[in-house]
Amino acid sequence: TACCAIYGQKELQEFLPSLWSSLRREVFQTASEKIETECLAALHALSACLSRSVLTSDSEDLLDSFLSSILQDCRHHLCEPDMKLVWPSAKLLQAAAGASLRTYHCITRSILPLLLDQYTKHTQSSQRRTILEMLLGFLELQQKWGHVEEDESTLLSLQAPVCSVVFSALTDPSVQLQLVGIKALTVLGSLQGFLSSSDLELAVDHLIRLALHEEDSQSSEAAMEAAGFLAPTYPKVFSGHMVPRLEQELQSGRAGKGESYHNHRSLQQRCLQALAAVSTHTSIVRETVPVLLQHLQKMQKGTEARNTQDVVSVCQSLHRVALQCQQDAEGCWYFHQTVVPCLLAMAVQAAMQESTHTLPGKALLEEEVLAAMIPVISAATTHLSPELAAQSVSHVVPLFLDGEVSFLPQNSFPCSFQPFGDGECLEAQRRLVALLMAFVCSLPRDVAIPQQEWLLRELLALSCSCNCPFTATTAAKCFAGLVNKHPAGKGAGADAGVPAHRWQGEWLSLSLPSPGQQLDEILQLAVNRMEPGLVEGPRRMQALTLLLWVTKALVLRYHPLSSCLTDKLLGLLGDTELGPAAADGFSLLMAESPDVLHKGCHADVRIMFRQRFFTDNVPKLVQGFHGAGPDMKANYLKGLSHVLNYLPKPVLVTELPTLLSLLLEALSCSDRVVQLSTLSCLHPLLLEAPQIMSLHVDTLVTKFLNLTSSPAMAVRIAALRCAHALTSLPTTVLLPYKGRVIRALAKPLDDKKRLVRKEAVTARGEW
User: Fold this and answer.
1) Of 711, 729, 710, 728, nearest to 719 (Cα)?
2) Which residues 6+ apart lie within 8 Å of 310 measured at CB?
3) How far is CA 638 from CA 93, 199, 666, 703, 765, in A?
4) What is the C-alpha separation between 638 and 636, in angstroms, rounded?
5) Residue-by-residue DSSP string for 106-142
6) pLDDT for the residue 473
7) Residue 665 has pLDDT above 70, yes or no
8) Do 616 and 566 form a contact (C-beta atoms < 8 A)?
9) What was the pLDDT predicted at 260?
10) What is residue 358's three-state secondary structure?
11) Picking from 19-23, 312-316, 358-362, 373-377, which range would have the lowest pLDDT averaged per residue?
12) Could you write out the DSSP letters of every residue in 300-328?
């Protein structure tokens, strides 16, 4: 291969027959995939080298004779009834054909008609699939060379039989053959000018049938993906032919006679998925989005209990469309200004019906549905230009603060919208703060939010006083998302090292010397609300939730107040009531949050915040563990294992010697979460730091084997994986334990759970 880049046909000429003979033998007889791959690369390089060589008037064209010998030795294998050497031959032919446009034309002229002929001769689906996969390989090579040249292309002259073969595969009962047919169709569709308008319409018909009515979900999903791939190339065909058919199926109402409700619902689900999948071009999005919203409005008026899951399905489809629109400014703005006001209007309508005790639309207020709407609004907002985002925010924020509903479609509501108002009858309206969070926390950082300080105060009050945990948590997250992006106050540059015992009263004035700054003021207010709530009362858990989210918002942006808040959290690990939840809070601080405070929604996330958090707080966790009573030690271990779990592995390896004894102690803890976190922390270390881990092999073997009989399935699986990972330690270290481990691992081979048995087989076999 390296020679072919330097030498030309003159130097290669005398070796060509023997090189071909050797390469062919290796591919036909090899037991090694690596050798086969290198042989095919060498053949490709040889063909490319001969294609590049400049011919003089008296020199022989070696490429033709070289390709002739390849065809002569491989072609007949494609026709053998047992199909024994079909794949090796096809691979050799494709390696040569991919070298240049000239080699491609030379080989396909001979091979494509032969493959088409073989497809019709063989009747078994498995044989047809093999032949179509080979054909697909050659079609993909044509893709590499781009436009189909009319005068030279074999493919164009075989348009009718190629389409016929692909369409016959799409109607075959074999799912595997269908899948190859769908792949082939996407390749044909990507070849400019290959499919005629009648072929395209037939292709769309096949895709609709497979997407909606094919029993096997693999074929259905593949057909939807293919439609999404081809739609940008043929937007008129898909918006004119596929979208109306899907809309018709979706609107067909209740299950037909003799059709079970389950089948009908499955068809509706597939219609929704297909509408989303095909929305890959702005002109199609303009057709599909109104259909999805109309369906959602129709369901809002329904009163069935099953309504919730159906509404979630529509939201999932809208979310997929939103993600597909993000890279196209026009499509993104169309989606945003169409979908966001519509979702808000429906949710507001449902909340008001709940406030006035009328029944329909209740599904829209379910946590599950609101949680499904959040990613739709978020994805529709993150990619807006600052100008368009500013235009949108000027409507949405006044809706929540002033009840300004004039921008919503169908805005004649039975009462006023006051999500931040007092009174039990407004509980439903308060839940919609989740949608406000989705919107304002996804805006670009440079977009000014009108009445932001008032909004922050309202969110803070709601997060501390609301009786509904869902509403209180979303208000806390929304508050944290805005604080994270808020321009820094003067206190932002102050010394972060304020002692934890200063929490009460005067400590904040030390780290924030300028209370006139808006951010400093709002943080002071937040601390004043959290402090008494954490000490006593019925809403301690809500105060902790607010503390966690505000701490995360500040940790991500390196705000100096974050260390004081973290110290308060560390102090809560020793609290009887809040200790376990505070320990789990360390996972929230370190993990990527799916809906707010991540880079995708423009949050201020510093690049090494996890390492910094580790350096600042792990020594305090270790110190707290040693000083804690026996009942509280588990909380410190749990907090520590969460921090270590999210730390980049190279950093963890360097800190391993100081922390390993504590991790081993954590394995003896009875808390399943601690055990699981510690095991998942140790697993990569066994692979990446075998020398250090070898020093503790005796303890590790004992602990892992004990945990293979844990009552928790997840712990048993993790322990078996660690027992398996032990085999990466030096053999001399492991040999004394071999017999003991093999005997101990015989027991989980009979575990009642299949996944545990599977891990046990792998681990025991390795030992």
Assistant:
1) 710
2) 265, 268, 299
3) 59, 61, 8, 17, 32
4) 5
5) HHHHHHHHHHHHHHHH--SHHHHHHHHHHHHHHHHHH
6) 95
7) yes
8) yes
9) 55
10) coil
11) 358-362
12) HT---TTHHHHHHHHHHHHHHHHHHHTT-
Q: How many residues are there in the chain?
A: 767
CB 483 within 8 A of CB 451: no
Per-residue pLDDT tens over the stretch 279-301: 999 999 999 999 999 999 888 77
Distance of CA 429 to the CA centre of its chain: 31
The answer to whether the beta carbons of residues 392 and 381 sit under 8 Å apart is: yes
Confidence grade of residue 508 (pLDDT, cut at 50, 70, 90)? very low
For the segment 114-125, the average pLDDT, to the nearest whole number, is 90
Task: State the chain's mean pLDDT as an integer.
Answer: 87
User: DSSP class of residue 605?
Assistant: -
As to burial, measured by CB atoms within 10 angstroms (0-12 exposed, 13-18 middle, 19+ buried), residue 708 is buried
Q: The tokens of 743 are what?
A: 């005997």
Distance CA 255, CA 258 (A): 8
d(CA 162, CA 172): 16
CA distance 111 to 515: 80
Amino acid 322: pLDDT? 96
How would you class 689 by CB atoms within 10 Å of its CB: exposed for 0-12, middle for 13-18, buried for 19 or more? middle
Alpha carbons within 13 A on the beta-carbon side of 60: 10
For residue 158 the two structure tokens come to 């075989």
- In terms of C-beta distances under 8 Å and separation of at least 24 residues, what long-range contacts does 420-424 make, across chains too? 420/458, 420/461, 420/462
Rama region for 537: left / alpha / beta (φ>0; ψ in -120 to 50; rest): left
The SS3 of residue 632 is: coil
CA distances from 473 to 313, 343, 531, 550, 594 (A): 24, 21, 17, 11, 14
Angle at 266 between CA 262 and CA 267, to 5 degrees: 120
Tokens 């020093």 correspond to 695
Name the DSSP class of 75. Answer: G
Which residues, other chains included, contact 345 with Cβ-Cβ below 8 Å and sequence gap of 6+? 405, 408, 409, 410, 411
Residues 278 and 274: their CA atoms lie apart, in Å, by 6
Classified as helix, coil or strand, 237 is helix
Q: Rounded to whole angstroms, how far apart are CA atoms 458 and 422?
A: 11
Determine the residue type at 475: A
Taking residue 294's Cβ as centre, other Cβ atoms within 10 Å add up to: 14
Q: What are the angstrom distances between the C-alpha of 218 and each of 62, 136, 178, 225, 373?
A: 46, 19, 10, 11, 27
The fourth-level CATH superfamily of domain 670-766 is Leucine-rich Repeat Variant (1.25.10.10)
pLDDT of residue 489: 56
Amino acid (1-letter code) at residue 22:
S
Helix (H) or strand (E) holding 21: helix 16-29
CA distance 748 to 763: 10
Which amino acid is present at 344?
A: L
Instruction: Locate 206 and state its tokens.
Output: 């096949």
Q: What is the 3-state secondary structure (H, E, C) of 394-413?
A: HHHHHHHHHCCCCCCCCCCC
What are the structure tokens assigned to 220, written together?
């259905």
Helix, strand, or coil (residue 593): coil
* Angle between helices 540-556 and 518-535 in degrees, nearest 10: 150
The 3-state secondary structure of 162-209 reads HHHHHHHHHCCCCHHHHHHHHHHHHHHHHCCCCCCHHHHHHHHHHHHH
CA distance 231 to 280: 6
The identity of residue 49, as a single letter, is C
- Residue 149: pLDDT band with limits 50, 70, 90: low
Calpha distance 439→506 (Å, rounded): 36
